[in-house]
Amino acid sequence: MMHKAMNLRFITVFIARQRDHIREDGWPALRRKLIILFQIIIRLPLLLLELPFAFLIVLVVRLVRPFYVVRFGGLNSWRMGPFAAEIELYLCERDTGINAPKTNFVDVWYHLNPPCNKQLDLMWRRVLNIGPQHFLNLIVRINAFIPGGDIHRIGNNTQKDRDVRNLLDRTSPHLKFLLEEERRGQADLRALGIPPDMPFVCLIVRDSSYLKKSMPWKSWNYHDYRDCDIQNYILAAQELANRGYYVVRMGAVVKEAMNIVHPMIIDYATNGVRNDFMDIYLGAKCSFCISNGTGFDAVPYIFRRPIVYVDHVPLGLFNTFSSKFLAITKKHWLRDEGRFMTFREIVESGASHFCYSNQYEDMGIDLIESIPEEIAAVVLEMESRLKGTWQAADEDEVLQRRFWEMFPKGELHGEIRSRIGVEFLRQNKAWLE
Prior knowledge:
- By secondary structure, the chain is an alpha/beta fold.
- The protein has helices at about 1-25, 25-65, 80-95, 120-125, 135-145, 180-190, 210-215, 235-240, 275-285, 300, 345-350, 355-360, 370-385, 395-405, 420-425, and strands spanning about 70-75, 105-110, 200-205, 245-250, 265, 290, 305-310, 325, 330-335, 340, 365-370, 420.
- It is globular.
- The termini are far apart.
């Protein structure tokens, strides 16, 4: 009787949830659900054929468990960030014996969503066992239905896309380009106007265009606090060009083009030649990447390329776990008091971990982007550090220590290895009071 009541409650809640989605998002949501329903109806005969085979596989997997553990898991592959970083960190943990069975085992994966990048999917298939989505999903559901199946779930790595064990600095990338891919990459670089052996920097500036286009039925306004203006990065790009670097502006879908014409500054996001292969090749081969902390930077992240995080918010979620990272954050302006918040106030108020636009709005906080000169300063600091020409003053180390002593550490951070931009701290000493 209780079992029937639970099933009835599940059905009631499910129907109510579908109704709410349709009321909230209107026709796009209804159309999406009708498509899913149609796909289920079409697949139903095949599902009835697959069901006994899937059950048999689960039975075999359970029988061989004393000798060999087979685990199953879904890949979160619809956005670049998790598709790149979560898998790389899973492999790092697997190779170091973290979150892995003590006995012999094999992991089998399937995509939870259509992959956002075909080249990255191709490369992951060389190092992962990736099988058919619907059939493996059926196996996972049967395994979960039968008690004792937890050992056959891969589960998540320690902190998803956050390297809290500092594994990236002590391991090598798991992905490599084939010889023919290297040849294609070099040819495509020349086609972009980048001569052989010339250094280039990837620039990715977040706006809301990608999410709005990829999932237009969902409201993404809660992410707007992270958006930045691409035009503020022109000065930094020009300074890099003056030092002999090509600058490649990245992005699958962007709000606007860069307002500059320069032979060494390439707006790859809007010039019509962007493709999945070069997204990965450029991210893997750049001298370093400039980012606001958005999806694409997971590519240079997994290939161990240095990254400058500009105007990263929330600041409590800085990527702190690699010596190859340099960061500055947006300033927090208290609207009613007409002043900037100190670092301590940002932390103590909880704003250091605000992940929704309405949280800043409710507290009367306006997030102020860095001006072009501030962006250029931290970018050129990275360039100098990589060249080995950077000269730090004693005061700079004092400011760094003061910042990290107040920084809200916790389970989202391992050993602190990254740094805050020197000029940012010099110009905002009062921020650290």
